[in-house]
Amino acid sequence: MNPAGFTEASDRFNDIWIARKSALSLARTLMVATMVIAVGT
After folding, report:
1. pTM beyond 0.70, yes or no
2. How far apart are CA 3 and CA 18, in angstroms?
3. According to the model, what pLDDT value does residue 5 have?
4. In whole angstroms, what is the distance from residue 5 CA to residue 1 CA?
5. CA pair distance 28, 41, nearest whole angstrom
6. 16-38: string of b/e by CB count within 10 Å (b at 16+)?
7. Three-class SS of residue 41?
8. CA 23, CA 30: separation in Å to the nearest integer?
9. CA–CA separation, 9 vs 2, rounded Å?
């Protein structure tokens, strides 16, 4: 396997990983905010 192609695939994997992590943290933040609003009202 050529190093350039491997690096490109690794970068793409990192982008997907970062996107998934940010989506999970956003979902968790929304869930917590919903709970806080539900408890507060």
Report:
1. no
2. 22
3. 66
4. 7
5. 20
6. eeeeeeeeeeeeeeeeeeeeeee
7. coil
8. 11
9. 11
pLDDT of residue 10: 85
Tokens (6 digits) for 24:
């999970």
Q: What is the pLDDT of residue 1?
A: 53
- C-alpha–C-alpha distance, residues 33 and 31, integer Å: 5
2-30 residue pLDDT tens: 666 677 788 888 899 999 999 999 999 99
Type of residue at 39: V
- For the chain, the helix, strand and coil percentages under 3-state DSSP, each to the nearest 5: 95, 0, 5
pLDDT on residue 7: 77
